Amino acid sequence: MCNFININTLFSFDPQLSGHKNLQQMKRFLIVLIISVWTYVGQSQNLPRIIILATGGTIAGQGTNVDRAGYIPGKLSVEDLLSSIPSINRKAVVKGEQIASVGSYDMTIEIWMKLAKRINEIFSNNEADGIVVTHGTDTQEETAYFLNLTVKSDKPVVLTGAMRPASAISADGPKNLYDAILVASDPLSKGRGIIVSFDETLYDGKNVVKMNTTHVNAFDSPNTGPIGQVYDGKVRYYSQPLQKENVDPHFDISRLDSLPKVEIVYLYVDASIVAINAFINDKTGGLIIAGVGNGSINMNILQAVEAAVKKGIFVVRASRVPSGRVTQFNQVFDDEKLGTIAADDLNPQKARILLMLALTITKDKNKIQEMFLNY
Questions:
Q1: Catalytic: 139?
Q2: 368-373 LR contacts (CB < 8 Å, sep 24+)
Q3: Distances (CA, A) of 365 to 60, 236, 338, 341
């Protein structure tokens, strides 16, 4: 048992500490002891090996009142999260690592890079059969898409989180985490790219979008719908992944420490050119225009877009509309003539991710347009 925990360290109580703090220390020891026992049992039963990479978020949040919405995200450790679902160790050998402890509104490209590199390292070294990433919901869709483009293994990677903090009445985090581990352990999850498991529903990492600010069923895939369900310990898929021939949407970031700068400009009635001109003057590498309708742009912004293209800035026309596609050719906006790129079915925040990664390997507009049509 000492292979799993350092008993002398965990069970050393300080007489100068208050009884409450010593009680907390004892509780933590017992939690780790339970996890270690189940890990030992699981290894002897040859169960799937799952590593949880924790980044913080609401699932690890704590509030002062169990019946109020306020809380601080990322307060609990991955060990604390696992302690809420001890029975999962009958299904898998589960270990945890803390990658970050942030609310996902504070997610950064630096954390993305660290996370993707660690996932690729785990699979390259055969450390696990599947990975679960716990993550805040605010930017979970962006992280899912980034990983979809940068993780090179076909082994399952499943993102999950919560809409209620761990301290709340009917916290949804433990069930979501339990389900995500089941999904990552299931052989049918292999080869499906990044999966988001939330509120017993499964979504693919490219199409998933956060659609509600407060409900526990906060996610959906407006263009495609869910890909499956997990309920009562059983994982079911509704569809098979479609892999196009000769298309490899995986970008190698192993030697990268940063990504090209790409910004988003939001369109609305009588939108000002101040923001887009500021980004142009800031020498950004790319711009995503969150246009109206089919990626439409007003005449003032259009002139600024043409100026940006002439300066060598890559401009992508996306849409603020939550579903549908931005098409390449129409009577008003012809991307070939404008020198712009159509986002196809990617929303502005995901279009930004693809453009950042695309610019690490090519400055050919036509090749980048093909990526948007295929990735």
A1: no
A2: 368/314, 368/341, 369/328, 369/335, 369/341, 369/342, 371/249, 372/316, 372/341, 372/342, 372/343, 372/344, 372/346, 373/344
A3: 42, 40, 12, 7
The 10s digit of each residue's pLDDT in 113-158 is: 999 999 999 999 999 999 999 999 999 999 999 999 999 999 999 9
Q: How far apart are CA 174 and CA 92, in angstroms?
A: 16
Q: Which residues of 4-16 are buried (b: 16+ CB within 10 A; e: fewer)?
A: ebeeeeeeeeeee
Q: Is the pLDDT of residue 34 over 80?
A: no
How far is it, in rounded angstroms, from Cα 94 to Cα 21? 27
How many residues are listed for the chain in this entry? 375
> Of residues 58, 139, 143, 340, which has the active-site annotation?
58
Residue 232's pLDDT band (cuts 50, 70, 90): very high
Neighbours of 288 (CB within 10 A): 28
Is pLDDT at 236 greater than 50 in this prediction? yes
147-187 pLDDT, tens digit per residue, is 999 999 999 999 999 999 888 888 999 999 999 999 999 99
d(CA 161, CA 208): 14
Structural domains in the chain, sorted by start: 47-237 (3.40.50.1170), 262-374 (3.40.50.40)
